[in-house]
Amino acid sequence: MLKQKLIAALAGAALFCGPALALDLNAMTDAERALFREEVRAYLMENPEVIMEAVSSLEQRQAEEQAKADVTLVADHAEAIFNDGFSFVGGNPDGDITLVEFMDYRCGYCKRAYGEVEKLLDFDGNIRFIVKEFPILGEQSVLASRFVIAAKHLNGAEAYKSLHDALMTYNGDITLASLRRLAETFDLDAGAIEAKMEDPAVTEELSATRALAQALRISGTPTFVLQDEMLRGYLPFDQMLEIVEGKRG
After folding, report:
1. DSSP character for 174?
2. pLDDT in tens, 176-217
3. In this structure, are residues 208 and 226 in contact, taking their beta carbons and an 8 Å threshold?
């Protein structure tokens, strides 16, 4: 990966030199090309920091291009992201900032982010928070998402939130037996929830979220959408707060 980045960075550096300094390697003789390569190698050996500077510059450019592309993707799919009509909405439903999270109950970074997000919602008090069930880490992930969505359909948002919070702090294997026990701790009818899990409405919700994630080019969890931009991966509380305040600024 580093080699590929370095090649791309050096190629970009050569192009940046402009027409006056452009080199046509194809026009060189074999001897000239060999001499040129030796000169480049010698320079890089004497100035190895140039390699990392080139890679860093390339990564920054790629990140900026990705951020611009993400803004367009969010704008193109805003209705499905912020107003799909089925995803859980918490925090302050009337908040001036909306934070959306695509998550998986088996994702370690999602579990790590859970406490940071809860802290942010409590600290700020003016953030609308949307949860997108995006189970991508195997059968246990799908089982958990189907169970909590079924509970939401049967018992409402409060039941969903209770199960969601419990699963985000749960570290054991997710089985029907463990989900039943979890439901019973909240006085929910586990049998009714289990019967609802394969309902077409539950499947449609999961399918719609998966299609949205694909359209947004989301391949991992957690992924956040904060107003007009995507934040791909775990972020600590301080960093999220800084971004939120910047949106209001």
Report:
1. -
2. 999 999 999 999 999 999 999 999 999 999 999 999 999 999
3. no
The torsion of the CA quartet 232, 236, 242, 248, rounded to 10 degrees, works out to 60
pLDDT tens-digit series, residues 13-52: 444 444 444 566 677 788 877 888 888 888 778 877 877 7
For residue 184, give both structure tokens: 């019973």
- Count of CB atoms within 10 A of residue 36's CB? 13
> What is the spatial distance between Cα 116 and Cα 126, in angstroms, rounded to a whole number?
16
Beta bridge partners of 225: 100, 230
Task: Specify the pTM.
Answer: 0.76
Q: Which long-range contacts (CB under 8 A, 24 or more apart) does 156-165 make?
A: 157/88, 157/89, 157/90, 159/186, 159/188, 160/88, 161/88, 161/90, 162/186, 163/188, 164/88, 164/131, 165/114
